[in-house]
Amino acid sequence: MKEKYYITTAIDYVNAKPHIGHAYEKIIADVLARWNRIKGKDVFYLTGTDENAQKNAQAAEEAKKDVKKFVDENVKYFIDLCKKLNLSNDYFIRTTEKRHIKISQEIFSKVLKKGDIYKGTYEGLYCQGCEAFITEKELVNGKCPEHNKEPRYIKEENYFFKMSKYENQMLDLLSKPGFVFPDYRGKEMYNRVKEEGLKDLCVSRKGTNWGIELPNDKGYSIYVWFDALINYISALDYPDGELYKKFWPADAHLIGKGINWFHSVIWPTMLMSAGIKLPKQIVVHGYLTVDGQKISKSLGNTIDPIKLVNKYGADPIRYVLIRDIPSGEDGDFSEKILTEKINSELANGLGNLISRSLGMTEKYFEGRVPKGKNLIKFDLDKLNEHFDKIELHLALAETWKYIDECNKFVEDKKPWVLAKENDKELSDVIYSLLDSIRIISILINPFIPETSEKINKKLGIKLGNYKDVKPNLLKQGIKVEKGESLFNKVEAEK
Ligand code: ME8
What we know:
By secondary structure, this protein is of the alpha/beta class. The chain is 47% helix and 16% strand. It has 18 helices and 17 strands. Strands 1, 2, 3, 4, 8, 13 and 14 form a 7-stranded parallel sheet that branches. The protein has a 4-stranded antiparallel sheet with strand order 6-5-7-9. Helix 13 (335-365) packs antiparallel against helix 17 (425-443). The site of ligand ME8 has 19 residues, from strand 2, helix 1, helix 7 and strand 13.
């Protein structure tokens, strides 16, 4: 049986249109999903939207729109973004789906039945941006540091989840390396549990008219994080669905650093209480800044990723976000760097290699793959190592090293001189280039799938998989076609 791989992204709030940070997370997940498919695994890639949040309802109110209508409108941008970015997600979950509502209520009931939910009074500060209670200690100048907003004071009778009960189990889980990636993000969570202890979690909201009703008390809705996290299993039709049986537990929940606590602590305790297996790994990425500044509506720098794709195409954006930002760390995005990379690494590097190799094949061999042996080596072990350690920027750099070596091979061998001299080596040289391009089309596929497809079309072959990443598999005599160039140079942004 094929090995399975289940990867999820966070589900996005739909109080506004998607921003470039949302695009970044979905691209990372797509790279991992496609790489695992190339490795022959059965992959399920899930993304979607978090719709039951009070902040969505508030945004609708500000826009003077009916909440459901407002949410439905905004979700379209997120679905469109997936298409525009050429994501290979297998499903797009919306938490207003009937089955998600039903399954969330079932899990709530299960935890209640276990004796892990009780009624009490909550008194404290609530940050609408986080959709979470926040302590005085966490505030910076009286404001939530993540959203730069003053929290509201709330006093309500509410339902609580006995998260404290799972403190020792959580310390045990977080003390082992591997559950949270990168390691130091797991240590941050471990230290927080150790220092603060695990407190019970308020899991209801009173008198809201948006959200999922509590199964045991109609005057309340389920706290949005409690329902949102459940998307990872409701999308698989927990508990009896075929997808659930096949794909759960998740291999990777990919998330941004700001919501690590919810995934590395709250979610596991919910699952422990409900008697459900834990995900294998929480993979945490850093935050994007734009031109060196935090992305924020008030700064007016929320780049619309859909507009960006319309202007440059998906592959250049996928390329620059992965190549330029070390996996796990914060990084900056700017159109200046994007345009520079399009012109240098994509057009001059990859584009040029393809067009001159295919051009020479047309010129010297009537467009047919000559007989030969591939003389250019590629280090697959190194690439694997980078993927295993989720160092996607290094995996991509390793692939580009190979592209640069191929270009250098052309400069060194000077096929135009060999052709003039009728040298027998010409055949091996051109074969080396074409066979390496075949391998490159597999290696770049997770990162820039559209370009990979275009290259395969030019070579007249189908996309290979992992076992095809070895030399000399390109068949002699195949007709290739130079066609149009892969990347057009763009005017550099200032
Ligand atoms: O947190 N750079 O939704 P969200 C990179 N609904 N990633 C960023 C980012 C940035 N500047 N800003 C945010 C939520 N993100 C919840 C998730 S999951 C059950 C519920 C990341 O729309 C953020 O960390 O605020 C999260 O992983 C994702 O974008 C969605 O953020």
